[in-house]
Design goal:
This protein is α/β, with parallel strands linked by helices and 280 residues long. Helices cover 37% and strands 23% of the residues. The chain starts with a helix and ends with a helix.
């Protein structure tokens, strides 16, 4: 039975144009994320302080800063993953278009996390096959058509450059893939539900240099259709791929701007010191 299903799954339909399920279509105009007067506290500690930031659409925005400065916390606040932290308290707003991401119902939160996907620091393949990893989010969001699912899996494995590497073992457990392949699989899983934003939390830090460059190159290509926000501790990486840079220090935004301007002509002394390596 499984072999019959897999044969059907792999049946070529390459002459048909790929179309995303209608419920996953992007808005006609890409939307910015606007963060206004945002503060985050954990117990008595003030972690993020008066964050005001506009994240441009269809760009790669890199968040840089020393370890422990709040980069990942800011990233995870955007899609409300900080909600799971004990004794967390937040004020202010985070807007995607006209939608306030900090004030939504549980059902709206599910849709929010579809629109704003996360690629974590370490790959997190689900304990299931390669094929089901990519299809998982689509099924959760109500896509049941087998033909659509198989075309979606094939399409996004091709997008992340994995199809030729895994097409003969789609029913193999995803954990058998290399770390670099697992990270690309996680990216395919996020893309399969057509997010508007991709959040990447040091998504290449666990990878070897070759795999890291493959993922970087993917992000550069993907910004034509998606908006990407990356936390990176590697300045060289930000120099290579960032369009826009946010420098955070001690929970505060110190400097924001076009990457070339920030790197070549930083306006704040703290930014200069960080870029010169005197703050780490």
């Amino acid at each position: 039975m499984r072999n019959l299903f897999l044969k059907k799954f792999l049946k070529s339909d390459s002459n048909e144009p790929f179309t995303v399920n209608a419920k996953f279509k992007h808005p006609d105009k890409a939307e910015e994320i606007n963060i206004k007067d945002f503060n985050l506290y954990i117990e008595d500690s003030h972690i993020l302080k008066n964050i005001n930031l506009t994240i441009p659409a269809n760009k790669i925005t890199c968040i840089i800063g020393p370890s422990g400065c709040g980069k990942s916390t800011l990233l995870k606040s955007i899609n409300r993953l900080t909600d799971s932290i004990e004794n967390v308290r937040k004020t202010g707003s985070i807007l995607l278009g006209n939608d306030d991401l900090q004030n939504c119902t549980e059902s709206e939160l599910v849709e929010l996390r579809r629109k704003i996907g996360l690629v974590p620091q370490r790959p997190t393949p689900l304990p299931m096959s390669i094929m089901n990893n990519v299809a998982y989010g689509c099924k959760i969001h109500g896509v049941k058509n087998v033909r659509q699912l198989r075309r979606t899996v094939r399409h996004y494995l091709k997008v992340v450059g994995l199809w030729d590497e895994v097409k003969d073992r789609l029913r193999s457990p995803a954990v058998r893939l290399s770390i670099g392949q697992q990270q690309r699989l996680c990216l395919a899983r996020s893309l399969a539900v057509e997010p508007e934003y991709i959040l990447a939390d040091e998504a290449t830090s666990a990878l070897d240099p070759v795999s890291s460059r493959i993922v970087e190159d993917l992000f550069v290509k993907l910004k034509e259709q998606y908006s990407i926000v990356m936390v990176t501790h590697t300045l060289r990486q930000a120099l290579r791929i960032a369009d826009y840079v946010v420098f955070i220090y001690m929970g505060e935004i110190i400097e924001v701007g076009e990457a070339k301007e920030v790197f070549n002509n930083p306006k704040h002394e703290l930014t200069k010191n960080y870029l010169q390596g005197t703050i780490s």
